[in-house]
Amino acid sequence: MNRNSRRKARSLDLGVGFDDNDFKLHRSWHSRLSSFKYLPTNRYSITYATIGFLIFALSLTKFLMWYLNPDKNPLPWRTYCQDTLSFPHELADSLAPVTILVGVMSIDRSAERRNVIRQTYARKASPRDGTHVQVIFFIARSRPSLRHAIHLEQETFGDLVVLDMKENMNSGKTFEFFNWASKHAWIPDPATLPSHLISYPSAYNHQDTNAYERIIQQPNEDGFDVKLDNLRKEYQRGYQRDHHDINNDDPSQHISNYVPGTGVKYKRPDFVVKADDDSFIILGELERHLRILPKKLVYWGYLIKNRFMGGQAYALSFDLVEWIASNNFTRGHQIGAEDNLTARWMKHHPKANEINWVSERCWIYNHPRTHTVYSHGFLFPSEVTRVKEEAIPGSVSIDEQIRRGQGNRNHSEAYSTVFKWGKEYEEPRKHLSVVDRVAALVEGADESLNSEEKKHGVVGLPRQSLSERYEGRPWGGTIIVHFIKRHEWFYETALAFLTDWSLIPHSKPIASKNYWTKTNALHNKDDDFDRQRGYRLIDITDGADVYRFRTSLEPFPTN
User: Fold this and answer.
1) TM spans, by residue (predicted)?
2) Quick check: pTM over 0.70?
């Protein structure tokens, strides 16, 4: 083989060129790639190859998203509620209220969301209100363009804390929140507060006479074991300890007359709650559920995969918060999904085996419009009672179970009257009023049933008052509604849980001539007269016409 043949062979084998003296020649990456045998070289083959590669990449991405998605199947929320014991109202009534700090994680540009929260579930729970359950917003250092607005918001509401750190979600913000709470959190002692400050937004309040026992679970390597004997003993010890602690608190936990002239004493919070700003928290329910727990070594929330409490909202007793803030392990492990990280911290606690992991799976869920595995309709005790009755064998036929599971009987325990699994939420009927739209989001309500459900004989609950929905008790229902991504969903949730619907009349559809009149609304001479009579006016425009819907607490005249 002569020199030229050897040079050509080496060039083909190594993908490089040689000059006449067998020195290597520099070749561009493009020319090197084009020398490969199976690489497309003309524009048509390059186009087809690019399209094929994009299709492969998209298919691989979709497959990995499906394979790694832990939420492929709906969760059996009906089973969760059937397994949940009734709330121990008598025990809660016998105990004094606990002090709670709710820290809502926010960012500098979310001022509108913070205002929505202030207007809804936190409207009586700011530090300036002086209640024993307080809601405070936490953000990191704000950008320069929003700094003045943040300072104004702090001065106006007094419920916004700026942490000295860069904004992040899973890189230390939760630790800094607990660190702040361990040093600066002081809540008014309920024993020194007037009775009107020991209350929460609610449209209904009544004494109750129901009691039961609560399940507390502890994690181990194999999952969660329910140790009933130990739980009863722990509950009895916790009950006695609560009474002792409430009546004989450590004086070091108080600042006597912290507010001069009021006589109100301040103490460390019994529990610290980390919450997201897309969670709606019924503070009264939260306080009563935490009130019946021991005040030490408690980790409360929605248990996910027997591993950690969901990050939408979880509570820690104050002793755990102090340990997190002072421990070297937690300080050195701040990077990662914050809810997973908190559970990891708990497992490194020196008394990890004694920590009470308390899960609430029935009364914590996602907003029904979000169509996630954690979503279903708004839950009230009256509907949960019906769900528990279905746990009796034979109460639901096999055909009905298959229908509920959309062809899969195993999914029947995830059945919801509000939305169908895997589909976006659709209103059951058209032309619903505002109140009826909210009523259609209530699990088991007659307004939530579409024509297909009624065709199969499904019977919904008629419009109920708040007393009927809560079965004659002031509390005992939903604690947290999560994944509320729109402001109007916040108002829907507030209307569902903080309003007595018995005071709101049923609305009529558009076709009802007794309720709907076509008029020039802007020049209607009867406007002032209608307002004086107490009518609520709602305008719906349709092109050049304006339809005016009139309702009142009294039946609208039919003549």
Assistant:
1) 46-68
2) yes
